[in-house]
Structure formats: structure tokens, C-alpha cells
Amino acid sequence: MPENSFDEIVDKYVEMNIAHPFMEGNGRSTRIWLDLILKKRLRLCVDWSKINKKDYLGAMVKSSTDNTKLKNLLKNALTDEIDSCEMFMKGIDYSYYYEENE
After folding, report:
1. Which long-range CB contacts under 8 A does 95-98 form with residues at least 24 apart?
2. Residue 75 and which of 23, 36, 40, 50 are 20 to 30 A apart at CA?
3. pLDDT of 48-89, one tens digit each?
């Protein structure tokens, strides 16, 4: 799948999330993968602290049929702080937070 624009990258992210063979670790690994593609192709990454857990998980559930909400959430959280260690670690921390059971 192409990954030349934001929309193409998110489309690819949704497909990878669907195709990923493991339930445990699926979200964490694909979020890191998404940030790597965004950094490489667009020189952007996601500030995951700007995305509400409930909104994100709901958007991911719907993304296989309509990824509009997911794209909006991600687009509104983009940052150009791609070289920030703090931003990278924040992404890891939030990735685990999204996976916690409540």
C-alpha cells in the first residue's frame, strides 16, 4: 500500500491493525510503526497525549468501515517534534495506557 500522504498512511495503519496476527501487543506495535512511517514520509509524529483513550479506541473499532474519525483524531495531534526523546517516550507511555483494562 502507498504511504505518500497522511490519508494513505492512516489507511495503511488501519489495514495493518486488522491484519496483525497477535491480539496482545497489536495496538502498541502498530502505533510505534505509524509514528515511524509518519516521521519518515511526512516529518511528523503523533503527540499521543492529545488523543483521548475512549475516543481513540472507539475510532479504531470503527476504522475498518470508516476511518474518518481516526484520521481527524490523528491529524489534530500531529507534531513536528520528531527528534524529541520526550515525545518518543510519551508515545510509548500512552501506547501502554491505551491497552490497560479499566
Report:
1. 95/27, 95/28, 95/31, 95/32, 95/48, 96/28, 97/53, 98/27, 98/28, 98/31, 98/48, 98/53, 98/56, 98/57
2. 23
3. 999 999 999 999 989 989 999 999 999 999 999 999 999 988
